[in-house]
Amino acid sequence: MDSVWFRRFAGPGTGDGTTPQLICFPHAGGAASAYVALSRALAADADVLAVQYPARQDRRKEEPATDLTALARTIADALARDLTPGRPYAFFGHSMGAILAYETARLLAQSAAPAPVRLFLSGRGAPAPEPLHSDLIEGDAELLAAIRRLGGTGQGILDEPELLEMALPALRADYRALGAYRWRPGPPLDLPFTVLVGASDPVVPTEDARGWLGHSTRESRMRVFPGGHFYLDEAVAEVADEVRTSLAAHAAV
């Protein structure tokens, strides 16, 4: 895989080129390292690759992306160059990452590249022509208040001026991109979805997440976990089981 865009935090499964791959898309302001725990939990079963967006961690000197559709196209192009025909792969996207996973899958569906076997869409309401109210953020004060509302283990940076200064450019750009994103109507994707959401997510009601099921022609499923927007922090083992079971089922077909 293109090392500019993808990071691996655990061994690549069996290393024989047939292990299913899981391509993970981070949340707004997040980096590839958001998937370290899930990568390790799935190390024996999948080759987990996390997308590294520009303007964070080892790409922090790059300009951040401010257009989600354009970013999805760049990621789709990188994947199309490196995907192995016949090797199953799936996408996992959390929050903003769910939109990027979905848009990347839509672009791949229009190309000759092999399609993912499944989309795992987490912590995000289904796309619609109008932006979610929670995406329409103006100014740093409103942005930081929104981040505090979401909770999660990354809250510590908000109280560390030096860390916050490093994180703000990516956060500003990501929320600008979310506020500008408009879903373009099109046919449902011909692949199954697994929709995951926290029962007490402050910005993603369960019914909004359920709306994803209408964007797939295949039999899909939804799971609600205890916790808020970053339920995954406390449910890594359970989510890994969900991913492992689904990938094993597709590999057996």
Automatic annotation (TrEMBL):
Residues 23-247 form the Thioesterase TesA-like domain. Pfam families: Thioesterase. Keywords: Hydrolase. Transmembrane segments: none annotated. One of its GO terms (molecular function) is hydrolase activity. One of its GO terms (biological process) is lipid biosynthetic process. The keyword Hydrolase applies. Belongs to the thioesterase family. This is Thioesterase. It comes from Streptomyces arboris.
